[in-house]
Amino acid sequence: MARVYAIKNFKINKENLALQETLFHNANGYIGVRGTLEESSAENMDTMRGMYLNGVYDIAPMKQAEKLCNLVEEKETMVNVADTQTIDLYFEGEHFSIWNDKISNFERKLDMEDGVSERKLDWQTRKGSRIRIEIIRMTSFEERALFTIDYRITSVDFCGKLEIKSLHKGLVQNYFNPDDPRLAGESHQHLQKKDVRIEGRESCLVSQTAKSKIQIASSVTHCIYKNEVQMEEKPPVYHKDEHSACLSDCIQLEPGDRIRIVKYTVFADSIRCRDCMVTARTKMEQILKKGIDFYYECQRKYLKDFWENAAMKIEGDEDMDSSVSFNMYALLQAAGADGHASIAAKGLSGEGYEGHYFWDTEMFMLPFFALTNPAIAKQLLTFRYETLNKAKENAALLGHEEGALYPWRTITGRECSGYFPSGTAQYHINGDIAYAIVLYYLCTGDWEFIKEKGLEVLLETGRLWMDVGCWKEDRFCINCVTGPDEYTCMVNNNYYTNACARYNLEWIGRFTDKFQKEDGWRSFADQMGLTIRELEEMDGAAKGMFLPYDEKLGINPQDDSFLSKPVWDIKGTPKDKFPLLLHYHPLHLYRYQVCKQADTILSYFLFPDYQDEETMKKSFSYYEEITTHDSSLSTCVFSIMASRLGMKEKAYRYLGDSAKLDLLNTHKNTKDGIHAANMGGCYMAIVFGFAMLQIKENTISLSPWLPDAWHAYRFRFRYQGRLVEVQVNRDESRIHLLKGEPVETEFYGAKKRLEEKQGLKWNGREVCFL
Amino acid sequence: MARVYAIKNFKINKENLALQETLFHNANGYIGVRGTLEESSAENMDTMRGMYLNGVYDIAPMKQAEKLCNLVEEKETMVNVADTQTIDLYFEGEHFSIWNDKISNFERKLDMEDGVSERKLDWQTRKGSRIRIEIIRMTSFEERALFTIDYRITSVDFCGKLEIKSLHKGLVQNYFNPDDPRLAGESHQHLQKKDVRIEGRESCLVSQTAKSKIQIASSVTHCIYKNEVQMEEKPPVYHKDEHSACLSDCIQLEPGDRIRIVKYTVFADSIRCRDCMVTARTKMEQILKKGIDFYYECQRKYLKDFWENAAMKIEGDEDMDSSVSFNMYALLQAAGADGHASIAAKGLSGEGYEGHYFWDTEMFMLPFFALTNPAIAKQLLTFRYETLNKAKENAALLGHEEGALYPWRTITGRECSGYFPSGTAQYHINGDIAYAIVLYYLCTGDWEFIKEKGLEVLLETGRLWMDVGCWKEDRFCINCVTGPDEYTCMVNNNYYTNACARYNLEWIGRFTDKFQKEDGWRSFADQMGLTIRELEEMDGAAKGMFLPYDEKLGINPQDDSFLSKPVWDIKGTPKDKFPLLLHYHPLHLYRYQVCKQADTILSYFLFPDYQDEETMKKSFSYYEEITTHDSSLSTCVFSIMASRLGMKEKAYRYLGDSAKLDLLNTHKNTKDGIHAANMGGCYMAIVFGFAMLQIKENTISLSPWLPDAWHAYRFRFRYQGRLVEVQVNRDESRIHLLKGEPVETEFYGAKKRLEEKQGLKWNGREVCFL
């Protein structure tokens, strides 16, 4: 069955327009284009008409209500770079618009194998003539600077003049909604006119961001075909005041005539190239030579590889299967792959969280890439390495004498968090990045990356733990930080944070032990100013790291004081009071045992060796009762841990909540963009949860189980250069080493060595070779 | 010796101008006028040309960097209401200005017995003619709407034309310094033109605040005398655009001629009267009939009473004596006495903290008034009673289902704190207000006030403690609040807060017990919805209130987690890094044991019965080592407790730090206004510290000691309608009941009953009647 998400005979209205724009967005890790309608919007429609370039930002003021020392007072914000989406058609003067009752056979589709979005519909003019419209959009993976609109018009029985007005607008603004705390809440004119070139069919506009001074060139060219024959259309007209160009054309139509408008947009920005205009125009020239069909073909091929690598398939639950595909595809669309950018919390699908990168990338999205597309994972980590200096500056602003503190939210590496108690205070971001580096290493065995980049990051984040932490008798403690659960802020010994720090420090020990036996060690150590004494101190801190444990309850308290607070009455709280953060003052929330999301539970998944199963089980039950899952990063983690702790029904239910979060708009804000982290979490819930995959330094361990509602599932992953396939059905589970060197496996507890093309089978009783 | 603060042969410059404006300000609890120079300022001078009316505010936006639920996004801010200070003189066209080298015999004086400020100097024109200038300013206690400038010019040997330009400007702006976090940091045009009336010698301008829509009328009239004979001056000219009027006059001078310009300003505002313009003009008419000398006489009489009531005098340390007088006088100037206003942190002397009222009033200033001028104390508490409804609204915004939470900073009773962790989270303000009500009751015995207003406040603040607190086993705990020490935020069981809450709840019990025996009880209880059960719960909470104690150190920890943090290295911190809040990120500060100010130590002074002396001593030593006194509310408290715990030398040293804080500008920000709380603290350090006064329900207890550096000191105070005098010298201490019913005293531990005019003497060995 094809990987397609489609809706049919659906009526777009004021309420679902922006949501549709998110769900049908096109992106390729560089360009993101919301699924905005080509025709100009009707009045009063809540639309976010946006096109974004990953990493392209401006600086906006972020005034603090009280100017405490070193608070952040400027933020980076993703800018809406241009509007090349708008195409208005007039049939004998009548404007074609979806906001017209005479629409039938409406269909909208995201084809994840072809890598395009489509909109199809039949339209009737006031006089009753019928027109067929079909629009295909693509952001190319082959040429990441390219976005295309392939607009096809068929006159069923229309006879008369078709007028085309296709816009290319340089000076656009960002979306503005003053009421939503999760959006920027203010609008600035971020773009300024810089340059323009109109030549023949091509318009090329260069804008510059107001404060960050980034130049963005957008080049647009149209090719118009009538009944498959290319026409000579009029060149675009440039409107100087608005920094925009408009192509106008007029075609006489007879019944049966087919018009195809191919609108090519090529972007270039000054972060990635020297002369944007030249770059964009040169690329445009090359692209036009190859033509759109070439790029359609490349797109299909790229996605064939992508799907074959991941090969995730669920049988017996079509909905779930297509949701999971949708999520994986959205992740691919979101991922910056050139080291200049990472993955924003909303990918490139909308302006929620202002295009900022959070821990979401490392903890929820990177594992998917590490297992299926390690090159992207490497780029994501390279981005963190490249911003290490800014993390050191951030640490200094926070009063630290040593080490690096990664920003809680950022585009270029500078902290952009305005409310530090649930922003900058989340020091665990350091440990999250360290964890992701180790995970990447375990998945790929890429020791060169560790030596060149990864270990340096681990050391500087490790130094921060040493600087922020302190010994209290024989315990190494970390005070006044915030864990992932933002309903509890600035606490001592957050279990999750301390566990992260321990892992970070432990792996410094493992990596330096290994490195010390190699040639480059001496110069590396000198360059880092690293001494044996420092390494010993780190080792001591890792060993002495305090992980709070409550004897009476037999659980790990979220932090030193968590259990001393009263428990929030979740059941007694009216449904319309969720998410709590929108209805209660933060100080009120901080006063209760109530969790926005998985915190200690997440650490059990990441660091299963730090506690025994009994403690994890008791904690799971405890935290489950007090977690609202107001964060979209929560249910996937509960699903994984439910799997690992043998609570299959729960694991399945939590996955359901996670998998369809955006498609069903369960958090009611998908209109601002996808919840990319949750999408990665959904993948993890299957692979790390259901299949119980654990990636170790020299082994992979699995013991998959099958939810009652499914018939079967399968997926592939890469392990240190190998390609492994897992298949699970009602009768048996199988693992195959499809490609690569022999590998040690632990399949349902049985330790076996698999040769290339060899497989194992578990029939519910025993493991045997196939 | 007269109570005068004077400086002579002093050179005003760019650095000390604004400081001088604060120190020589005039205020009467309603009007505040900074000691700005009458002549227009030279360029680049950092001057805060301000005139304020207590309680007159506008609303300014206070944008939050992140819009969390129910955060405060608007603040009230004291507005600069008009400029009637400016008087420019031109001698044969040459502008008289202090920024001229030809100044001699400069003298500036605050006469605290006459209740005026004076500036005197001799000036030489470019041509060498000598002029004598003498300017006297007064804000009248007799007529609080009146401010006068009495400008006297003597020509020593000048011959020629004197031109006078005296300004009355309606549209002024507030001071603006974007760099200082303790000021507003932004400027808005708060005033708008409303009305104007020029008639004869009088100009009356009415302005209106932009958002709060408060009208302010200022009426100005000049009387000009030449050699004591009143002249007919030209009527003022009204400048329409600037909403200002200017009186111009031209007088021919001969050597020996004396000119006197008396400039009367009368204010009225729509908070306090219906038609401001009519009110101001009517008052002006009455005032002119009586003339300035009448008001000078009233002023002297008012202050004679004031000083006789307090009668504080220190012998053997002139500096200290005049500092203490300065402080007491400043407090009197600051205190709102009409129930519409309270005492701002900077009094009416400057725009620091935007004219906001804090806990400073109740905890540091009210005791002075309760002991010397109970009518003012009553008005201050009435202000809190009148704003109880806003405190209930505030509590609801914070998520409380019951009770009232007073705002951390406010003008009308609405919360104006932008950073809640060290603002709104300081719930102890509730207990502070309750404490002040009880103190007022103990000092005055005003049971009617308690029944009519005080008990209602205590009950609503008490209900908040019940709502925010929770039982943890047999301990009543209060989580996630901030104590007075702002270097530690949002903690559980802050000792100070819990002690405040306990006292609040205990006195609910005492007052209701007493009330229950009286007639009005039933209807009061019904009106308050008060049940026996609720009172029992409050009583239980008071008895079970958790006051943290550390067995090992034998001290009271500031909060549950305080002692688990590392100690800040105060001695190792460079001097230029103080105050720490200007140099370290708050998150960094929160992570250490370091106190901005007295916290637990303050509670020992307020609630001495809650701990034994041993614990208090150990705690004192402990906290002394980790307190930076970056807050001006700190050293006075340390002085009191040092006295009480027998550390006389320390007590004396801390008093020294406190007493001259503004006169010596030790906190380097007196230019923004006085530190009114510290001034009250200084008084308390002598009366409650040195004299060890304790006010109890039926007794006063004292055992005064004399610092080595002093020869003697004495003071008077009121106790439940009585007037008591205390005299301490090297040989003996005396207490006299000057006036009133017999009183039980505990003098150096000896319990004696004093009749009117009777006294006791302590000679170092025994107490005996005089």
Q: What does this molecule look like?
A:
The structure is a homodimer of 770-residue chains. Chain A is an alpha+beta fold and 770 residues long. In chain A, 31% of the residues lie in helices and 25% in strands. In chain A, the strands form 7 sheets. In chain A, strands 1, 9, 10, 11, 12, 14, 15, 16, 17 and 20 form a 10-stranded antiparallel beta sheet that branches. In chain A, a hairpin with a 3-residue loop joins strand 2 (26-27) and strand 3. In chain A, helix 6 packs antiparallel against helix 8 (428-444) and helix 16 packs antiparallel against helix 17. The radius of gyration of chain A is 27 Å and the shape is globular. Chain A starts with a strand and ends with a strand. Chains A and B meet through helix 13 of A and helix 13 of B.
Inertia-based shape of chain A: globular
The major pleated sheet of chain A works out as:
10 strands, antiparallel
Structural class of chain A: alpha+beta
> How many distinct helices of chain A?
18
- Count of individual beta strands of chain A: 32
Give average pLDDT of chain A, whole number.
95
Helix content of chain A: 25-40%
Short description:
With 770 residues, chain A is an alpha+beta fold. Chain A contains 18 helices and 32 strands. In chain A, the strands form seven sheets. In chain A, strands 1, 9, 10, 11, 12, 14, 15, 16, 17 and 20 form a ten-stranded antiparallel β-sheet that branches. In chain A, strands 21-26-27-28-31-32 form a six-stranded antiparallel β-sheet.
